[in-house]
Design goal:
two-stranded antiparallel sheet, Helicase, Ruva Protein, domain 3, 6 strands
């Protein structure tokens, strides 16, 4: 999935929004030859002209009656507020990890997360069993996105997507962003027409549902294209309702992460060893690109990671696992910015696919830990051995029976 609904990794997102899959080539807008004349030079056409051309193109390409599309979309509004919210930040803007983190890893949201887990434990555990994604991570994403349904957005989704598809604000990547939101509008129409059995009332209601200012919908804030590709019917009622069904939302989040490379039983990130001799190398390797180019073994050899982090039996990962250095800066007035560094693993990048922001992924990881997630491999911490411990071997024979009795009563190690 692309970064359609979020700012680039160089700046933190203004909200937690699931990214649309339509940034991929297969979801791109391809007008029919007959329609192409109407939509040439769209940047020079008005919002209403582009909307009319879009309705005609969708009617022809998807065999949807033009009357139904017209009834559903003709009252769409061009929202100036939405365009202000997605506009690039000023050049003087400095991202701040500590401020960002404090919005999500904080007492109120943690309490809400623990309550959500208790209320939905069976669904969360079932989703974890099916996908391999820990239930605390699933709960953390829903908590970061909407505080468990408390903040799902108050814009009509069709207004958001038409505004950004046909009148995106001035930006270096304006044309690309318009194309991406146009694809999302197409996905929305497809979704609504398909799921409402071609009934006008339901079609209109689907187009008018509320969303975030970037068009993300429901508890997990999925974009329309994400709903089409990754959402799941978690409650088995034959429908996918990400607004009201917690089970649908839970299974959809789990499926999204699984499809995007989640490695079951593996950690999300490792802290780095920040010493004078390693810091310069860490800074050099933190290139901001969401690509795992390094191996854990290399980072251990450079002194950036501890040896145990390349050992499955000690809560780490396989030594040849891919990783990247993640920088998390927090500017200070009149001072050199304070930068925290972590090593992102495959599961970190899985979360980055949900929202293209290092800040977002690390916040989800730390929020999940606050909800009880253990950020280590599921393998035993201590090395397994068939031989008895040295101390037990040295015990007198007359005490051997008693020792065995005590050992049997002990709880197994975590």
């Amino acid at each position: 999935m692309g970064g359609c609904a979020t700012p680039p990794l160089s700046s933190p997102p203004t909200s937690a929004i699931n990214n649309p899959p339509s940034a991929q080539t297969e979801g791109s807008f391809t007008p029919l030859e007959k329609v192409s004349e109407l939509i040439d030079s769209q940047s020079e056409k008005s919002y209403q002209e582009q909307l009319r051309a879009f309705i005609l193109e969708i009617s022809l390409s998807q065999a949807i009656p033009i009357e139904s599309l017209d009834l559903g979309l003709r009252d769409s509004k061009n929202l100036s507020q939405v365009k202000k919210l997605v506009a690039p930040p000023p050049v003087t803007f400095q991202k701040n990890w500590q401020v960002y983190r404090s919005r999500f890893v904080e007492p109120m949201r943690i309490r809400a997360g623990l309550a959500y887990i208790e209320q939905n434990r069976l669904a969360l555990q079932a989703a974890e069993q099916e996908s391999g994604v820990p239930y605390q991570v699933i709960a953390a994403i829903i908590g970061v996105e909407t505080i468990y349904g408390r903040q799902m957005g108050n814009f009509r989704v069709k207004d958001v997507l038409t505004s950004l598809a046909f009148d995106y604000p001035e930006a270096p990547n304006r044309l690309a962003r318009q194309t991406l939101f146009r694809d999302q509008l197409k996905d929305l129409v497809t979704l609504c027409w398909r799921t409402t059995n071609r009934k006008q009332e339901g079609f209109n209601r689907c187009l008018n549902q509320s969303s975030s200012y970037a068009g993300a919908i429901g508890l997990p804030q999925f974009m329309p294209g994400s709903i089409l590709q990754f959402a799941k019917d978690g409650d088995g009622d034959g429908l996918i309702d990400l607004r009201k069904s917690n089970r649908d939302a839970i299974f959809s989040v789990a499926n999204f992460l699984k499809v995007h490379g989640w490695q079951a039983g593996m950690p999300i990130y490792f802290p780095t060893i920040n010493q004078e001799q390693t810091l310069s190398k860490i800074m050099e390797l933190a290139d901001g690109q969401p690509i795992a180019k390094l191996t854990v073994k290399q980072l251990i050899e450079l002194g950036i990671l501890e040896p145990k982090q390349g050992d499955l039996l000690q809560g780490g990962v396989e030594a040849d696992s891919k990783a990247l250095i993640v920088d998390l800066p927090s500017p200070a007035k009149g001072e050199v910015p304070q930068i925290e560094y972590v090593v992102g693993l495959a599961n970190f990048l899985s979360i980055v696919n949900y929202n293209r922001s290092y800040f977002y992924a690390q916040s989800v990881a730390e929020f999940a830990e606050a909800l009880g997630y253990s950020n280590k491999s599921v393998f035993p911490v201590q090395e397994q051995s068939t031989s008895k411990p040295v101390k037990e071997q040295q015990k007198p024979k007359k005490q051997e029976k008693k020792v065995k009795k005590v050992k049997k009563s002990e709880k197994p190690a975590d």
